[in-house]
Specification:
This protein is of the alpha/beta class and 377 residues long. It is built from 13 helices and 13 strands. Bound molecules: zinc ion (ZN). The site of zinc ion has 8 residues, from loops. This is Protein deacetylase sirtuin-2.
Length: 377
């Protein structure tokens, strides 16, 4: 398949798909690898969707063929050393500038090492493990109407994953790396799709985190919207004292401020996207399948000058991936296959940050007290 071209308004978009390796797909990009503007991306995505479905597999990555083609630069652990060195150099270049210009986008993959169940992986995914609650459909656990009628499924789940309670759900090396980015004045913002609160527990300040799907640090009534005392809600859920009720209207159920289906995303998200994205120089996309809009569209909304690095088990999204292995590599996008923590550790070694990383991780390890150990059982 050759290069395909679409003209839309005053911009021209190109794609090409090499016949054998879908990993090398060059997708939605203006000449020179630019990206679409905030407003045209949704239109372009809509236009391209039938095409993508008909012939080009953007979501799949043939890792075995990638291994062969890139074997010269790879270490034994599967980490591509050239890619790692390039990413480290990009970070060092920004460090010299002394301005926070890195945007991070986190998905479930950054929390896999913390034992947080992935929402979508068949067999091990959260939805598959919810069968014991006899949900009419798995997503009902995050459905507002269902919670109103049968809150037990969500309450049981919340007890299981409440942040900061169980030692095995401690922040991962990737979360510690994000805290180091902030400490070194490199971080513009971390957008996360996760509700496990591990970015915060890993040492980042709440100002630097945009938890797109909410968090467990506050709670409110689903009927009147009044804020509730989060400590009381937490105790009620962990001690299985029944559904927390609103102390203002007295008839509404209270839940942590996790965004359920049918609820609006936090208004802060829209504001930050508009303010942050034009200022980004480097975007790190970590452990996400980029399947949930609007967060999945953020990589398409950064300026064409912004470099993008995907650390994930497989290639996803619309990145024009380079390997970093060629001296004349012009691509602004890089992809490193594998688990996030392995890639992050390699990058930290290249930066000389490994000791700092491990100290940060140790300092934020969750230590279960006697009470919380009992609670967790
Ligand atoms: Zn209420």
């Amino acid at each position: 398949m050759g290069i395909q071209r679409i003209q839309l308004f005053n911009k021209v978009y190109y794609f090409s798909a090499p016949a054998r390796c879908s990993r090398q797909v060059r997708s939605i990009g203006t000449p020179g690898g630019g990206c679409c503007s905030y407003h045209t991306v949704p239109v372009v995505s809509k236009l391209l969707t039938p095409w993508i479905r008909s012939g080009i597999q953007l979501q799949r990555c043939n890792l075995s063929s990638h291994s062969k083609s890139a074997s010269s630069g790879k270490q034994n652990d599967g980490i591509h050393s050239e890619t790692v060195r390039t990413v480290a150099k990009w970070i060092q270049d920004l460090e010299k500038q002394g301005l926070p210009k890195i945007i991070v986008l986190c998905g479930a993959g950054v929390s896999v090492a913390a034992g947080i169940p992935d929402f979508r992986s068949p067999g091990t995914g959260l939805y598959d493990n919810l069968q014991k609650y006899n949900l009419p459909y798995p997503e009902a656990v995050f459905d507002l109407d269902y919670y109103r009628q049968r809150p037990q499924a969500f309450l049981s789940l919340a007890k299981e994953i409440w942040p900061g309670v169980q030692e095995q759900h401690s922040p991962t090396l990737t979360h510690s790396f994000l805290a180091l980015l902030e400490q070194n004045n490199l971080l513009l913002r971390c957008y996360t799709q996760n509700i496990d609160g591990l970015e915060f527990l890993g040492g980042m300040s709440s100002d630097k985190i945009m938890e797109c799907h909410g968090h467990f640090r506050s709670a409110s009534c689903i009927r009147c919207g009044s804020p509730a005392d989060i400590e009381k809600v937490k105790e009620s859920i962990l001690q299985q004292q029944g559904t927390p009720m609103c102390e203002q209207c007295h008839i509404g159920h209270v839940k942590p401020d996790i965004v359920f289906f049918g609820e609006a995303l936090p208004p802060r998200l829209n504001l930050l996207i508009q303010n942050d994205l034009p200022r980004a120089s480097l975007m790190l996309i970590l452990g996400t399948s980029l399947q949930v809009v609007p967060v999945s569209l953020i990589p398409d909304w950064v300026p064409s000058s912004c470099r993008r690095v995907l650390l994930n088990r497989e290639l996803v999204g619309n990145l024009a991936i380079g390997t970093g292995s060629h001296p004349n590599e012009k691509s602004r996008d890089l992809f490193q296959a594998g688990d996030c923590d392995d890639s992050i550790l390699a990058i930290c070694r290249a930066l000389g940050w490994e000791d700092l990383l491990r100290k940060q991780n140790e300092a934020t390890r969750i230590r279960a007290t006697a009470t919380t150990t009992m609670d967790a059982k």
